[in-house]
Amino acid sequence: MLWVVAGVVLIVIGLGEVFRTVLHPTGRGRVSHVAARSTWALTSRFGQRARTIAGPVAAVAVVTVWAAFQVVGWALVYLPFVPDGFEYNPGIDPTAYPAIVEAFYYSAVSMSTLGLGDVYPTDPWMRIFAPLQGLIGFALLTAAVAWFLQLYPDLGRRRTLALRIALIQRADTADHLLDMESGTSSDLLDSLTAGLAQSRVDVWQNSESYYFTEAEETTSLAAQLPYALHLARLARRSSDRTVRNSGQMLEEAIDDFAIVLRDRFMRTGDDTEAILREFAHQHRQRPTVPDESS
Question: What is the pTM for the complete model shown?
Answer without folding.
Answer: 0.83
